[in-house]
Design brief:
single chain; mainly alpha; two-stranded antiparallel ribbon; two-stranded antiparallel sheet
């Protein structure tokens, strides 16, 4: 005897209706059910389509952390800028008040001319490029509809993004050829101020290395002087008195050593020595840290990519390698051409007027469109 499908379907409906009635008697409060539905929706949104991967899940889970970091960085940007100005100004004051008189009194005229000329040139380059990097707009894509080609749509701005454009969560807008957001500039590093940022890092590193090397002997002398006078009270110099000197009452009763007076060590000498130690420690530390950052950016510029593109190109290289193919950066025009484009060198004299001297020239291109060369060729002949 075969079972009729319609009867089975009717039985299932009856069981389901009874379970629904039983469930309705024990229904949870409305706010609990709404909270549960909302949490279930959030969980389902993590794998809502086939394009979802580990990066999307990671971004979704850590979105509150990213928002907090962006918020704090945005409001503390002015503090970081003031800190850079204060620390740099303190080194300049020490150089003029403490080091310059020593240089003028001890060095030969040739060395005096070298230190004065190089020091002031380096200081001008640091101040100029830091101001331009902090005040120059990195470049933004157009907000109105136009015919500019784009490669994607920003999920935050809901606007078209040209090639090499990325969204900055701190500035809360898209940046042309974005490298990163620098809190020490309180500004994004993008197409129009990338050269200023790199030049500032380079000349600041050179200045710190210059102060560290030229002030090494002064640092050692200042440190030894502080240590010597610190233990002066513990190791007081004295001359032993014996024989007739004790009989004629040269010393008070019970004292057998004649205490010599300590050499003069004024408050001014103490502050000078501490200033030299402060300058050497600060410049050496910043020189090492900022030097490593400068070398890293120099490598990226030689490859024709930014910090963000380095991560993207690495993932593309791995993806293409799985298919047995080799990924090539379409914006890499060759090592020399990359530096010409980055520095804006169009003729030989520009290596001096645009690289070794302060220059406010605009970078190559508009940041919206980029030429792609499949083979290496001299993009800007020099």
């Amino acid at each position: 005897m075969r079972c009729c499908p319609s009867s089975m379907l009717h039985l299932l409906r009856c069981v389901r209706s009874r379970s629904c009635i039983r469930r309705g008697r024990n229904r949870l409060p409305l706010w609990i059910r709404e909270t549960w539905c909302y949490m279930r929706l959030l969980l389902q949104s993590l794998y809502f389509n086939s394009l979802t991967d580990s990066d999307v899940v990671f971004d979704s889970v850590f979105e509150p952390v990213f928002w907090t970091v962006d918020y704090v960085t945005r409001w503390f940007g002015t503090v970081f800028v003031c800190l850079v100005v204060i620390l740099t100004s303190s080194i300049v004051v020490i150089a003029y008040v403490v080091l310059l008189p020593l240089v003028l009194n001890t060095y030969s005229p040739a060395w005096i001319a070298w230190h004065v000329c190089y020091g002031h040139w380096n200081l001008i380059m640091i101040a100029f490029h830091y101001y331009k990097a902090a005040k120059t707009s990195p470049g933004y894509p157009p907000t109105e509809k136009n015919d500019t080609p784009f490669v994607s749509v920003c999920k935050k701005c809901i606007m078209a993004k040209p090639a090499r454009t990325h969204h900055c969560g701190i500035c809360n807008r898209c940046i042309l050829k974005m490298d990163h957001h620098c809190p020490w500039l309180n500004n994004c590093v993008g197409h129009f101020n990338h050269r200023y940022f790199f030049s500032f890092c380079l000349f600041m590193t050179l200045g710190c290395v210059y102060c560290s090397i030229s002030g090494r002997n002064l640092f050692l002398d200042a440190y030894n002087a502080i240590e010597r006078f610190k233990h002066l009270d513990m190791d007081k110099p004295g001359v032993p008195v014996t024989g007739m000197a004790l009989l004629i009452g040269l010393l008070p009763p019970g004292q057998t050593n004649y205490q010599t007076s300590a050499p003069p060590y004024t408050f001014k000498d103490k502050m000078i020595n501490k200033s030299i130690i402060y300058m050497w420690v600060l410049t050496s530390t910043v020189g090492v840290a900022l030097g490593a950052l400068t070398i890293w950016h120099a490598v990226l510029i030689s490859r024709g990519e930014t910090s963000i593109e380095r991560h993207i190109n690495g993932k593309e290289t791995e993806r293409m390698a799985k298919w047995g193919k080799v990924y090539r950066n379409p914006f890499n025009y060759g090592r020399l051409n990359n530096w010409k484009i980055f520095l804006g060198v169009e003729k030989r004299s520009h290596w001096v007027t645009r690289v070794l001297l302060p220059s406010g020239h605009t970078p190559y291109g508009d940041g919206l469109t980029w030429d792609i060369f499949p083979v290496k060729k001299d993009l800007i002949p020099v």
